[in-house]
Amino acid sequence: MMENMVKFIVANFVLILLVSTSRGQSIFDVTKEGAKIGADINQALTRSWNKACASTIPSKVFIPKGIFLLSPVTFEGPCKAAIEVAVQGTLKALTDSKVTKDGSWITFQRINTSHCQVVELLMAKEPLLGVLVAKNFCKQLPINIRFDFITHGFVQNIRSLNSKQFHINVLGCNNLTFQRFYIIAPADSHNTDGIHIGRSSGINIIDSFIKTGDDCVSIGDGSKNISITNVRCGPGHGISIGSLGKFEKEEPVFGVTVKNCTLTNTDNGVRIKTWPASTVNSASMIHFEDINMINVSNPILIDQVYCPWNQCNTKVPSRVKLSNISFKKIRGTSATPIAMKLACSSGTPCEGVEVADIQLKYIGKGPAKSECSNIRPKSSGVMDPPACRG
Ligand SMILES: *[C@@H]1O[C@H](CO)[C@@H](O)[C@H](O)[C@H]1NC(C)=O
Ligand SMILES: *[C@@H]1O[C@H](CO)[C@@H](O)[C@H](O)[C@H]1NC(C)=O
Ligand SMILES: *[C@@H]1O[C@H](CO)[C@@H](O)[C@H](O)[C@H]1NC(C)=O
Ligand SMILES: *[C@@H]1O[C@H](CO)[C@@H](O)[C@H](O)[C@H]1NC(C)=O
Ligand SMILES: *[C@@H]1O[C@H](CO)[C@@H](O)[C@H](O)[C@H]1NC(C)=O
Ligand SMILES: *[C@@H]1O[C@H](CO)[C@@H](O)[C@H](O)[C@H]1NC(C)=O
Question: Which domain of life is it from (predicted)?
């Protein structure tokens, strides 16, 4: 109770961004466009963005120190040259605010050859009333930040607290790097994925920390060449590829590397999930390596009968083909006895699955085990638990 009350006093969304100076840029300071401390700077910020976007030399949108309000905003390209968004102050969302037309608080979209350096973003919980309203109108819960159709970008030092939906959503982007993201939402919050990627290529997530109620990072259909390195997750549902196969016209997932990550107290560790009775799709060249598990309920999981809330016919096999998948150097503790579960589709069994150097201990009594269906993984190195034969 006490804890809840404290949370409610930390009202509103808050965004804190820091700036690094650089040369050879035109600078568009929002206060020159009429932004005032304590007031909604949406219009001043939009004007600054539009000017920066029209600049033929690299530019910077600058928000100085101070607490400003910000109603939902979309930063749209294409822009003429590289743009940096640098924020030193604090941005607070308006409590009774609507969301952008694509359901976010802040959207960056259609920016090519950009250098968006958005630094330090911190969002705190809404007051009690806001939470109740949000629950009644759950379809309108905003994604904190959307990156849509961005080509060549670099985003650093975002802090996102208590998003009401996905914290960060990435769609249609190419060559976009996220470094030092610090994402927090309560363990029991629904659908608050840390970073969701879909239909994008060349996305790198590095040096980040994600504690949330849903997936730490989720990788949806059409994701290619995705790399997740030095990320700490937990609580939450772990790092997931999928779910895949629920919708028509899904695109393949190809090339995902997850390396040197630590998952703590998560429901799953590294997981690939596809729906039974699914549409046709595939996921291949997926590699998990150097992963530490601390009290993770399902550390290694391929789940081709993923069917939450019994929304599907589990008797019909998934038609998502999984191939060339490896789990290597995965160590630590499992909160359940089944530390490794590879449940492949009976209709299109997994191919080219490799497990190596697995050392997972069950934290309870007895040994950790592995379980497989429709797959006989190739194994090498230390195997504890021993590889299964499905
Ligand atoms: C980005 O711009 C480059 C050069 O102008 C162009 O070749 C490329 O097709 C653009 N990419 C997207 C996704 O718009
Ligand atoms: C990827 O984007 C970065 C900007 O963050 C840029 O410096 C780099 O040249 C881009 N890479 C390619 C292959 O275009
Ligand atoms: C994958 O992404 C990395 C970094 O974003 C890039 O350097 C590399 O060229 C990409 N590779 C392919 C095959 O697209
Ligand atoms: C692995 O990730 C941790 C942070 O989780 C970092 O401190 C460490 O330097 C990384 N190791 C390598 C080899 O990159
Ligand atoms: C381990 O995970 C289980 C299940 O999520 C949880 O109930 C338990 O409190 C965790 N133990 C520790 C020591 O965190
Ligand atoms: C899987 O790996 C094998 C052997 O390296 C290769 O021949 C095959 O093309 C790969 N398949 C996919 C879908 O990546």
Answer: Eukaryota
